[in-house]
Amino acid sequence: MQTVTERELIAAFVALAGSPDDRGADDPLGSLVRGVMSLLDVGAAGVLLADADGTLGVAASSDDVVAQVEAAALAGPDGPGADCYRTFTAVGTPDLVAALDRWPRFTALALGAGYTGAYAVPLRLPGEVIGAVTLHRVAPAPGTGTDTWPGDDALVLAQGLADVAAATVARQRALRHSGVLAQQLRSALDSRVVIEQAKGILAERGGFGVDEAFTQLRGYARRNRIRLADLADGIVDGTVDTRPVLGGPATVARGRR
């Protein structure tokens, strides 16, 4: 593994972790690729991320070439990235020529792009893997045999970077999910307020209680296939004629009734 200073290590992990409010980690996968490229002896790197259905896709890459190689290999799918995701463990080889039988599609593409070795480490969360980080070597370092790449220390560091990135991705997903839930709750509460207002209007105009008003409101919405909240909103803002809702004939004019 190439010489890495303590300051470089700290900077890489800080970039991946971001800040507690999430503003400091807008692109954890991009930061992961940059960290791998700056700290490890690799010529190219990529990040594969699984979608909700478990299908891998290229989420970040050091350049367009490795992105194209990974994307084309995933159509198989084969390659260390796909195997890593499936087995939850680091997978790879320092000599791609020896992997032609194991990963025929990936190996042909990778060798054609000039890569001589490839490894992948998992993006791990407790009990699951959400993707993989792929490491590609362009040529052995001078005086170094291909069988020593990437080395145990490098794999440990790559896994550490991947673990922090995975945790940051999970945090961002949780924040987005909580934001969606909060918006849904606000919308539900707003709709409930409008429905209550519409019930009051119908009760006053129909001369009956709010329970009967809700029965009339819900029945009209169902018969006419209108969302209850939309109907209530129209009654409150005066764009819906309340006479048909109350069982009477509609008037020609459109306005508050």
At a glance:
The chain has 257 residues and is α+β, with helices and mostly antiparallel strands. The chain is built from nine helices and five strands; from the N terminus they run ααββααβαββαααα.
Mean pLDDT: 82
> Which spans of ≥5 residues are poorly predicted at pLDDT below 50?
20-25, 251-257
Query: Please, how many helices?
Result: 9
The structure class reads alpha+beta
Secondary-structure element string:
HHEEHHEHEEHHHH
How far the N terminus sits from the C terminus, by CA atoms, comes to: 79 Å
Largest sheet: 5 strands, antiparallel
Query: Strand portion, in percent?
Result: 5-15%
**Which term fits the overall shape?**
elongated
Major sheet: arrangement of strands: 2-1-5-4-3
Q: Roughly how many Å is the radius of gyration?
A: 29 Å
Give the fraction of residues assigned to helices: 40-55%
- Count of DSSP E strands? 5
